[in-house]
Amino acid sequence: MNSNEAYDYIERISNLLRNTLRRFGASHGLQPTHLEALAYLKACNRYSDTPKGLTDYLGLTKGTVSQTLKVLESKDLIKKNIDAKDKRKIHLAISPKGKAVIKDLLPPFLFRDACAHLTSVAQLQLTRYLKQLLREMQESNTLKSFGVCRSCRFNQQKSPENYFCKLTGETLSKQETLAICREHEYQKS
Ligand code: SF4
């Protein structure tokens, strides 16, 4: 494979998607980073819904993330909740209004439309190869994977409806195992 060519395509797709997000986000007074933060908070689990988790995921400075959170809070798109056990810890929750914005804008229509023109086999292959590429890049640079809980090496299924996290020692609901996590680690291959 010619990695320069693959890189060019990924770069051009990224630019197209970002420009679309910029245009449509503007109708809600939001920038692409605001939408990325909302999408993360919609997808992440209870170990990851903190300002630190969001900062790590977006790879931005603490100051930028703090500004992002101020904008989202002022528009009632997120809510800050104090941790029940540790009063110094804040959890961020996406509001119903925030979820509606994400549902409306993500993935952008031009991406959805283009995917609809691919066969279901091509869509599956594309997803598989992109996932593999992301994993390779994360692992070779010792970056956090932020993967889906169910694929984590600490996830243990006790019964069809009952899961357990060997890292935190806590029970997980079936729904929680579909969320992304900042502590996620892939199975050792
Ligand atoms: S099993 Fe892994 S991904 Fe799931 S909560 Fe535990 S550390 Fe996070």
What is the name of the CATH superfamily of the domain at 3-117?
Winged helix-like DNA-binding domain superfamily/Winged helix DNA-binding domain
End-to-end distance, in Å? Answer: 23 Å
The coarse silhouette is: globular
Gyration radius, rounded: 18 Å
Instruction: Name the CATH architecture of the domain at 3-117.
Output: Orthogonal Bundle
Order of SSEs: HHHHEEHHHEEE
Main beta sheet: 3 strands, antiparallel
* Uncertain segments: none
Mean pLDDT: 95
Helix content: 40-55%
The total count of helices amounts to 7
Q: Under CATH, the topology of the domain at 3-117 is which?
A: Arc Repressor Mutant, subunit A
CATH class (first level) name of the domain at 3-117: Mainly Alpha
Produce a short descriptive summary.
The chain is built from 7 helices and 5 strands, in the order ααααββαααβββ.
Structure description:
With 189 residues, the chain is mainly alpha-helical. The protein has a domain at 3-117: Orthogonal Bundle (Arc Repressor Mutant, subunit A). Helices cover 51% and strands 12% of the residues. The protein contains seven helices and five strands; from the N terminus they run ααααββαααβββ. The strands form two sheets. The chain has a three-stranded antiparallel beta sheet with strand order 3-4-5, with no helix packed on it. It has a two-stranded antiparallel ribbon with strand order 1-2. Strand 3 (155-159) and strand 4 form a beta hairpin. Helix 2 crosses helix 4, helix 2 (32-43) crosses helix 5 and helix 3 crosses helix 4. The mean pLDDT is 95. Residues 45, 47, 149, 152, 154-155, 165, 167-168, 181, 183-184 line the site of iron/sulfur cluster (SF4). Iron/sulfur cluster (SF4) is lined by residues 45, 47, 149, 152, 154-155, 165, 167-168, 181, 183-184.
